[in-house]
Amino acid sequence: MQLGKVMVVDDSDALRALMVSSLIRHGIDVYSASDLEKARKALESFKPDVVVLDLELGEDDGNDLIDEIDAAGAICLVASSRDKVEDRIKSLSLGAEDYMVKPIDMQELFLRIRNLLNLRRSTTVDIKNAIAELGGVKVDLVSRRLIGKDSKRHDDLTMSEFELLRLLAEKPGAVQSREMLFRRVMGRNVSDSSRALDMLVSKVRKKLRSAGCKVDINSVRGEGYALRPYRGSAIR
Question: What is the CATH number for 29?
Answer without folding.
Answer: 3.40.50.2300
